[in-house]
Amino acid sequence: MRTTDLDAMLRALEKQFAEQPDFFDQDPVLIDLTGLPPELWDHPIDFVRLVRALQGLRMLPVAVRGGSLQHQQDAFEAGLVPTHESVLARQPVVAPTPAPVPVAPPPPAVQVPPGAMVIDRPLRSGQQVYARGTDLVVLAMVNNGAEVAADGHIHVYAPLRGKAIAGARGRTDARIFAMSMEPELISICGVYRTSEAWPADVQGRAAQVHLESGPEGDKLVITPIKLG
């Protein structure tokens, strides 16, 4: 933000995205006040209105950075979280400390294997998804410039055109599956292969990728998947 005039800013946002109403899909947003001129630091900002307006554009405001101490306090009261580097005033914003509430001791922990992370919308260029400690299932296209990563397997039930990184923390049995294999880059446990070295017989076809160890070291093996 470079102005505290919400009417002008929101008109510009609505005009910019009027022809792309689905451009955002609950994407998290940081409200950055570091570009606000110092002469506007004493101008109030209606953060409640700003949050509601951004939510109406299918954004998810979560945090604020920069601005004055009063801006930080108002943003906090509107449900936004100040980032660590955000307070440019001399005093930090202090959240009210809730009274301690007695709680019963927790029951013994039950070890439950984590379920796969499921993404059911297309991933645009620049978007990244990481399934920590589990598999990743993508039900829509991974576009060029997007990146999917998982500590386990990656399943893409659509064209895979971006980057795919399986076994991100060393799981050697991780695999990558795609209904249409045409990625920019694939990697398993740090062994990678780019589109320039992609075999023509699996380009654009259903295929899987796994890591194979041999006398000459580890390599990625790409094989077609027979459907039906």
Automatic annotation (TrEMBL):
Keywords: Cell cycle, Cell division, Septation. Residues 2-61 form the Septum formation inhibitor MinC N-terminal domain. Residues 118-213 form the Septum formation inhibitor MinC C-terminal domain. The keyword Cell division applies. Transmembrane segments: none annotated. InterPro entries: CAP/MinC_C, MinC, MinC_C_sf, MinC_N, Septum_form_inhib_MinC_C. It comes from the Bacteria. GO terms for biological process: cell morphogenesis; division septum assembly; regulation of cell division; regulation of cell septum assembly. Cell division inhibitor that blocks the formation of polar Z ring septums. Rapidly oscillates between the poles of the cell to destabilize FtsZ filaments that have formed before they mature into polar Z rings. Prevents FtsZ polymerization. PANTHER family: SEPTUM SITE-DETERMINING PROTEIN MINC (PTHR34108). Belongs to the MinC family. NCBIfam families: minC (TIGR01222). Interacts with MinD and FtsZ. This is Probable septum site-determining protein MinC. It comes from Comamonas serinivorans.
